[in-house]
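WARN no homologs supplied; continuing
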Amino acid sequence: MEIIKSPYLKSDERPTWKSLFWGTAIWFLHQNLVYGLASLSCTWGRLSARIAGVSALQFVETAITLVALLLMLVMIYLPWREWRRFQSERPKDNPQMLEDTEKDRRPLVAFITMLLNGFYLLFIIAAFVPIWALKPCVSS
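OK structure emitted
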């Protein structure tokens, strides 16, 4: 009887699933906090003071967005590390890197999780536009 040695046998995909869950949760919480905070700030009249030359609302929204960015970078790095672990050779020596990804479900899930969290990161970066370009409590 021959023992099959494969890098996939010792793998546990729970870190990848956790990264997918937490990446989605970070994005969801960021969107709800930033846009909800602007609405509540205008309704309640809070966060109208100035901090370091900007409104307190912009300062708090920027701080929340920066924390979400950092957390999302971690959620991209974790599946990237899992995906790289499944590659059979170094990238320079492996022109079939994506084919290695398709060989098993676990590297494919890690790759898709990494890409999805990357798209969430782009949405979080795009949140800087309304934070800095729009004045939420100004009526037309």
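The chain has one domain: 16-133.
OK
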